[in-house]
Amino acid sequence: MINIEKPGAPCWLDIGSPDTAASSNFYGAVLGWEFMSAGPDAGGYGIWKTGGETVAGVGPLTDEGAKSGWIVYYNVPDIQEATETVRSSGGTVRVEPMDMMGQGHMAQYTDPTGGQFAVWQAAPGAATDDDIRVDAPGALTWVELYTTDGATAQSFYQRLFGWQITDMPLPGDGPERYHILTVAGGNPEKDGHGGMMVMSAGDLPGGHAYWSPVFETTDCDRDAAQVTAAGGTLQMGPADMEGVGKVATCLDPFGASFSLITSVG
To answer: Residues in domain VOC (predicted)?
Structure first.
């Protein structure tokens, strides 16, 4: 369960795309999202909505050679402190804290294993995010970090966000573990917002870590079929995962990773 107002919780996500119109067509076909421009001064940035609620943002890639990918933002109470913690913990500050039209401040980082992410500190008295849709069909319901170095990643994120990290075995008899991520003081059984998987460098694009969002859907089979029909790639599934639901791991037409899930219950 994602509570976007909790410190350390996912509170937003957006994607840089070489063709925002094509990305809007793709995610519209798969998840029913509709694009709304953020205005003439937003540099082509806009938001995706479904059922009148905001689900994510999209903007044009601006750096030469940059690849499309989802960026997950995490809620922080003090962005300057977070930035210093990133530096002192072996991470990299890619974008220094910057004001976002008086609504708050954002910064973008890379963790020591290569995973790119961002943080957000809302301004006092700023408009609330009541219209952001999470944990519902067509919206973010989980985030996952794929990394080659679980120990380093765990230490970094625990120091930065204070996350609780709980191990659970994966199906089968192997030693592999899935690590549940929960905000400080939360209950991992009901408040977990994400997971962490350790993988070999050969199984990761470019050999480094990345964050990938998971979107809830009422019919994973149907929407996974739409992924390929709309020009994306199905990497795994749809497959039933006991006690979890039916899951499909996908790439959009520009190579950005995401998953679909029809949760149990």
So the answer is: 9-122, 139-263
Containing structural domain, residue 89: 10-122
**Cβ 230 vs Cβ 28: under 8 Å:** no
Structure tokens at 190: 């009901």
**Gap between the terminal Cα atoms of the chain:** 13
Which tens digits make up the pLDDT trace of 230-239?
999 999 989 9
Tell me whether residue 113 is in a domain.
yes
In a domain, 225, yes or no: yes
In tens, the pLDDT along 98-146 reads: 998 888 999 999 999 999 999 999 988 765 555 899 999 999 999 999 9
How many CA atoms does the CB half-sphere of 13 hold within 13 Å?
26
Higher pLDDT residue, 204 or 113? Answer: 113
**In this model, does residue 256 exceed pLDDT 90?**
yes
- Note whether residue 4 is domain-resident: no
158 and 256 share one domain: yes
What is the identity of the amino acid at 128? T
Residue of 55, 75, 249 whose CA lies nearest to 134: 55
Q: Is the peptide bond before 238 cis (omega within 30 degrees of 0)?
A: yes
What is the rounded CA–CA span in Å between residue 165 and residue 187?
11
- Tell me which of 206 and 160 has the higher pLDDT: 160
CATH number of the domain that residue 146 is part of = 3.10.180.10
Q: Which long-range contacts (CB under 8 A, 24 or more apart) does 89-97 make?
A: 89/155, 89/156, 89/159, 89/160, 90/152, 90/156, 91/156, 91/160, 97/121
Percentage of the residues of the chain whose pLDDT score is greater than 70? 95
